[in-house]
Amino acid sequence: MADAYNHRIQVFDLDGKLLNIIGALDAINVASGIDIRNNLLAVTDQENSRVLIYDLNGLLQQILTEKINYPTDVLFDENRLYITNFKENTISVFKLIKE
Fold first, then answer.
1. For the domain bounded by 2-95, which CATH number is listed?
2. CA dihedral 81, 14, 10, 79 (to 10 degrees)
3. Residues 6+ apart with CB under 8 A from 59
4. Which pTM value belongs to this model?
5. DSSP letters of 25-36?
């Protein structure tokens, strides 16, 4: 669950038990969009104009900032990551190197 104004991602099991908190130490300002593919979790950080990529254990793997302006959502699709840029009305596309 993207916990937008609490600067983190919370992971729950199907019974609602909290399993993990991701990004709390990474200065996320507004986490609004998340998507998971295989072993990667992409998180938008709107007000910092970046997307953070984590592994499923919550370890930060990469920070994307190029051609990103107020990202509101992300989507993994095959070997690409699509990022919506609210302030520019554009979509940035990144080719995935590893999965």
1. 2.120.10.30
2. -10
3. none
4. 0.89
5. TTT-S-EEEEEE
- Domain coordinates in residue numbering, the chain: 2-95
Q: Which residues, listed in sequence order, are joined to residue 55 by a DSSP beta bridge?
A: 40
Give me the pLDDT at residue 98, please. 60
d(CA 13, CA 55): 17
Residue 36, token pair as written in the block: 């998971």
| pLDDT > 60? residue 99 | no
In sequence order, the 6+-apart residues with CB closer than 8 A to the CB of 1 are 9, 10, 11, 12, 34
Residue 64 has pLDDT above 80, yes or no: yes
Burial of 27 per CB tally in 10 Å (0-12, 13-18, 19+): exposed
Give the span between the Cα atoms of 42 and 60, in whole angstroms.
10
CA distance 52 to 65: 9
Q: Is the pLDDT of residue 52 over 60?
A: yes
